[in-house]
Structure formats: structure tokens, C-alpha cells
Specification:
GO terms for molecular function: acyltransferase activity, transferring groups other than amino-acyl groups. The protein is of the alpha+beta class and 166 residues long. Helix content is 31%, strand content 33%. The chain has a single domain, classed as Gcn5-related N-acetyltransferase (GNAT) (Aminopeptidase), CATH 3.40.630.
């Protein structure tokens, strides 16, 4: 039986593969988006997740198969109505392949991400999710993230969560 390996994405080959994986998952989960527009964090993955001292990107693999990801990037305070503390990061791109869900992989990824946040001296983890992502709000609550607020933009509800590191 293959063993789950969680590692930090750093080398150029892993970056290219990971970005393609994330873009593919986004097409499945968010068919309503314009996928010709590539989000800034994926366009400049290295600056966002590797070179930035607040960034990191983790991948979960079984053998050579990439089955999950999660990232942490410097929070840009793009939601001005939210009262997010200083020294916050945004948790991004938590994806686990459907056939590997409910096996603790996402929890493993988040726990590892929290350890890196501690090492980096981060005070607060912020994230947002949506009702149409099955199980997302329950998952984040189980990870001890606190619900902050719902915002609505372009008829899409966005649920905001936070986690105090101390």
C-alpha cells in the first residue's frame, strides 16, 4: 500500500505540475469562472508561495499521484468590510481528489499548514469558501476555524472564516 506523503512544493517541475493540477480542479469546482483568466497566485506561484516569507504550498501524494493541495499566502485585505487582524495569511487552494475525501487528507494538510504558520510567526489564518462546495463549511468548523461573515458579490455568497494562531 502506498503511503501518503505531504511535502512543500519548491522545485520547478513540481511547481508546473501543481499549477496545472490546481487549474484543472478549479475548472471542475468552479465551472462558472472564466478559466482563461489565471489567478495571480497561480500566474506568479513562485513569488506568492515560495519567495514570500508568509507563503507556502503543500501537496499530498500517494506514490506519484497528486491527490491534494493547500496553500498559504500573504493576505491582501481585499475584503475591506472584514476585520482581519494584522499578520494574517490566506489559506488557499485546499483540494482533495473526490475518491480520497473523508480519509483525513484535508485535515492532515491543514494541520501541517498550521505548523508552518507557527514557524513563520503568523498570527491569523483567513479563508473564504462557498455553500456550493459540498462539506466545506462543516470541514472548516471541524478544523476550529470561526465563521466571520457572509458577503454577497455578483449573486454569489462567500463565507469568511478565521483561525487565531494563539
Amino acid at each position: 500500500m502506498k503511503q501518503l506523503e505531504i511535502s512543500v512544493v519548491t522545485d520547478i517541475n513540481a511547481i508546473a505540475h501543481t499549477v496545472e493540477y490546481v487549474k484543472s480542479v478549479r475548472k471542475t469546482l468552479f465551472p462558472m469562472l472564466n478559466h482563461e483568466h489565471i489567478p495571480a497566485d497561480l500566474q506568479d506561484f513562485e513569488s506568492t508561495y515560495i519567495k514570500n516569507p508568509k507563503g507556502i504550498f503543500l501537496q499530498a501524494k500517494l506514490g506519484n499521484q497528486l491527490i491534494g493541495t493547500v496553500g498559504m499566502m500573504e493576505f491582501n485585505y481585499r475584503f475591506p468590510l472584514l476585520d482581519i487582524p494584522d499578520n494574517a495569511v490566506e489559506v488557499t487552494r485546499l483540494f482533495v481528489e473526490p475518491e480520497f475525501r473523508k480519509m483525513g487528507i484535508a485535515t492532515n494538510l491543514i494541520n501541517r499548514l498550521k505548523l508552518y504558520a507557527i514557524k513563520k510567526g503568523i498570527d491569523y489564518l483567513y479563508l473564504h469558501t462557498h455553500h456550493f462546495l459540498p462539506g466545506a463549511t462543516d470541514f472548516w468548523s471541524k478544523q476550529n476555524f470561526t465563521f466571520i461573515e457572509v458577503t454577497i458579490e455578483n449573486n454569489v455568497e462567500t463565507l469568511h472564516f478565521g483561525y487565531e494562531m494563539h
